[in-house]
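Exercise: predict the fold of this chain.
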Amino acid sequence: MSDRKKVYCKRISKELSLDERFGQLVAGSNDEYLVILEEKTKTNIKRRGEKILVEGLDSDVFIVERCLNELTKLAKQGVPIYSDDVIKSISALSYNAEIDLVEIFGEKIEIHGSRRVVYAKSQNQAKFVNAIKSHRITFGIGPAGTGKSYLSVALGVSKLIKKEVKKLILCRPAVEAGEKLGFLPGTIEEKVDPYMRPLFDALFDLLDAEKIQDFIDKGVIEVAPLAFMRGRTLSHSFVVLDEAQNTTVPQMKMFLTRLGFGSTFVVNGDPTQIDLPKSEYSGLLDAVNRLLNIKDIAIISFTKDDVVRDPLVSNIIKAYED
């Protein structure tokens, strides 16, 4: 955007038109999205019906026009638009004015048998989804809230329902984030259940509780600690290893060598949240370094710009990075 401002430096006014059918979706409730556009591009936007008058530096007016056009394309394809999507669209177009937002936000995961459709919300999320579809093993590296786990589980559920795999297996290493499972009351299953809860949360957001329980009872869906994978060969399965930064090097080797015919593995982790003893090196970091150039293994890195939680989460991540 800075390069364009060197070329275009005059203030202009330009009248734009909203699509008659999809204009309200693009403008947002009470013109919420137009307000965001106005604030982020430092322009002045006035709406009268389907007509919009935009005033500001011509480079910024150009971004507003491109953003409205791209958001309209998304709306026409049935992609839901949220305030965070508008912010990410402005950021993406400011970086590359020719980018096609449909290629980013249009990447979707359909859950057959339900109306649930999951859409990628950033360029890295779209790359991540495509990598999982086209590689045997995919690593998702980045901060919390970037959609790594949710997208992985959504793809696994989609493949399971379409019978592209026979099992969906979700696992995490049993390393406590500052707490000791041994001091919790109950059986080992009761102790582990809260620790696996984030994976269950994703499942329950994608499928009905009865359907999930039926799959679990039949052994089609399995949610278990990483240690339960030892000694097994996981064939025709979609397997997600979450919180992989807390695996040791031997644990990661054990997990990756469980790969069987017809299976897809997804390994997700945040290197900034390692809870291992200081004497242990993270199996995730070790694996990424070792496997960087192996064919059929993809490594996708996420940043705070990919966070899809409350915008405040992005600011918190940035504060800790600084």
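Check your answer against the key: The domain at 13-105 is CATH 3.30.1370.10 (Ribosomal Protein S8; Chain: A, domain 1).
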